[in-house]
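U., I forgot to send this yesterday:
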Amino acid sequence: MDTKLKNGDFQLDAGGIPLPLQGAEEIIQQAMICLTARRGAFLLDTGLGSRLYQLPRCREAALNQQALAYVQEALLDLPAFRVQQVDCQYDPRRDQLDLHMTALVAQTPYALVMTL
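Result:
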């Protein structure tokens, strides 16, 4: 069992107790941590994280394939989270890359969005 995170901190109940997290929510949170952390930045586990930050900020035909490869690499140690598809959309006005992912978590489909 894990503890629910929100905006980089523990999410607390009305009594100030950290909220527990389990099941699919726990797996999704673990996947999002793996995807948002920069690969190699955590010295105790340099394999933790992704290389999504290396994705170019442009409209490239191969961008979706590269993003899918980075996502799958980051989640190798999390077999309960299986990414099926990644679709990248770059917005040059905001200089942001949005990743729309579809994944199977404990055999249930989920749609997730990340902004880089």
